[in-house]
Amino acid sequence: MDWAKAKNILIVAFIITNLFLLFNISKDLFIKEDLQLINDHYIENVEVLLNDNGIQLKTEIPREIISLPLLDFKYENLHNNEIIRSFLGTSYEVNNNIYTANEKQLSFESNKRLKFKKLSNEVVTYAINEKEAISLSEEFLNSKGLLKDDLSLTQVYFGTINDYDTAPLYKLVYNQTYRNRFLGESYAHVYVNHRGVIGLEAMLLKHEKTQTHRKKTIPASEALLKTMNDIVNDNENQEIVITSIEMGYYLNPYDIQLSDWKDIESGTAVPTWKITLENGKIYYAEALKN
Description:
This protein has two domains: about 5-70 and about 210-285, Lipocalin (Beta Barrel), CATH 2.40.128; about 75-205, 2-Layer Sandwich (TATA-Binding Protein). It is about 25% helix and about 40% strand. It contains five helices and 14 strands. The protein has helices at about 5-25, 40-50, 80-90, 130-145, 220-235, and strands at about 55, 65-75, 95, 100, 105-110, 115-120, 150-160, 165-180, 180-195, 195-205, 205-215, 240-250, 265-275, 280-285. Strands 1, 2, 3, 4, 5, 6, 7, 8, 9, 10, 11, 12, 13 and 14 form a 14-stranded mixed beta sheet that branches. The radius of gyration is 22 Å and the shape is globular. The two termini are about 45 Å apart. Mean pLDDT is about 85; it is low at about 25-35.
């Protein structure tokens, strides 16, 4: 038997089956379009389809369908003398846009993305707990003028990140928000161990304008169906558990059809569903209704 051919046939059959189920589920989407409510039967069918594909839910599927405006943002210019002095002091060396001083390194990507790293081979002799890591992180961000009201801690990861240290450390993920909705690709990642903050990566946005017209969005259930195959393929042979589904905004710095993203100073953020897994992976699904 040609096993490769048989495998391809099974994959095609799986895709066709999912498309058929998706069509039958979607036709019962609304109780009444003018009420903008999700049919209970539709939600149940989506849950069954997710379960059949090995995806568990540890959160409710949002039922509301809302209309939101598009938002215009400008990237914060983090490449300035005040920022440099706050990280390195007044005495430092510059080579190929990389600033160094006292075993510290600071660099910028097109003025938008900031990267800071402590350069040290000190051997780890003791650990810190999560509470201490959070305290050190917030004290550090505040001292650099980056801990603003719209920046919130959303995730704490403990493990090995070879770019910063061979021993386990804490990675604290802060996400920027606008009117209590997340802003995708606007963040500060802080890396902490017993030596304090040993690394930071940040890219932040500044709101410029809210567009006048509101756009209708797809429901969360449809976003789940759109991302289901990607989630399954990315997490093959792993337990897949969805812990959060929320609506916010996403401005992808790489999804610009002009030139290099490094030349882009501003852009439009669109309503987007964010699906977070228990293993920390995040999936975005654009929510604008066609």
